[in-house]
Design brief:
The chain is mainly alpha-helical and about 260 residues long. The chain has 2 domains: about 160 residues, Four Helix Bundle (Hemerythrin (Met), subunit A) (Up-down Bundle); about 80 residues, Arc Repressor Mutant, subunit A (Orthogonal Bundle), CATH 1.10.10. About 65% of the residues lie in helices and about 5% in strands. It contains 12 helices and 2 strands; from the N terminus they run ααααββαααααααα. Strands 1-2 form a two-stranded antiparallel sheet. A hairpin with a 5-residue loop joins strand 1 and strand 2. The longest helix has 25 residues.
């Protein structure tokens, strides 16, 4: 079965999208564009979506990811540079590079982004706990040898990754390959949308060295279960795996509430 390059192009939700107000959560709008971008990027850096030393996406890429103007992105990056979160380097290999994962104003900025939208995150976590085990189970039941080969290739890329960006690409490809193994583009589209929302529309999930180590082990177990056609084991591994991101976000919210509440 040939899947579309972008499964969301098939409009898997149809009437649902038109009749229900953004079931997976609307894009967040705060006081103005620059504020929105700063709050979201500071949240992303605190979660490890981007890590110290890593180059942020370009102004154009961030504008497209977040659905805002490049002017707003440029102003946000300027503010983050002044606050010491990033360093802007010029030249052929320049860009905006992350300096720090946490700054004096982080708790307030993260709180402005996450706390008013917490009900949406809870709904996303709940949906993910239901849907991802279903996808893993279905993949194990329907996988072909070609599907397994794609999953194994992505797994090898994840093992061989030497930096955050390589890990991100391999992780995305692995989970996409699992979704494709269901041979159901609607399931793949739902998973992709939830992944996008959980990653703050910034293309990568929260990350730390400890989480990467856990994820690497779970990725291997998941690939083995799907290859073996063990549907129940695949579902159980997926249920455990996708809690990693949820836990990181919950831990961050607890930290923010603790720091803001102590002032």
């Amino acid at each position: 079965m040939i899947l579309p390059a972008n499964p969301l192009d098939i409009d898997p939700f149809g009437e649902l999208d038109r009749n229900v107000a953004e079931p997976l959560g609307a894009r967040v709008v705060t006081r103005n564009v620059a504020d929105q971008v700063v709050d979201r990027l500071v949240t992303a850096v605190a979660l490890g979506v981007y890590v110290p030393g890593q180059r942020l996406p370009s102004e154009r890429e961030l504008s497209e990811m977040l659905g805002v103007s490049r002017t707003g992105v440029r102003e946000a990056l300027h503010r983050m540079g002044e606050a010491g979160y990033i360093q802007v380097r010029r030249g052929r290999h320049g860009g905006s590079f992350v300096l720090s994962g946490w700054g004096p104003g982080s708790a307030e900025m993260i709180g402005r982004h996450l706390l008013p939208n917490w009900d949406r995150f809870e709904a996303l976590f709940d949906a993910r706990r239901i849907i991802e085990p279903m996808i893993a189970r279905t993949a194990a039941e329907r996988r072909t040898r070609a599907d397994v080969k794609r999953i194994r290739t992505a797994l090898e890329s994840y093992r061989a990754a030497t930096d955050r960006e390589e890990s991100r690409r391999a992780d995305e490809q692995l989970h996409r390959s699992v979704g494709e193994a269901t041979h159901n583009p609607v399931l793949l589209g739902i998973s992709t949308q939830i992944r996008s929302r959980v990653s703050l529309n910034l293309g990568a999930e929260p990350y730390s060295a400890r989480v990467r180590e856990q994820a690497a082990h779970q990725h291997e177990e998941l690939a083995d279960a799907i290859d073996d056609g063990d549907a129940e084991r695949a579902a159980a591994i997926a249920a455990e795996h996708f809690v990693l991101t949820e836990k990181m976000i919950r831990d961050l919210v607890r930290r923010v509430r603790r720091e803001v509440g102590s002032r």
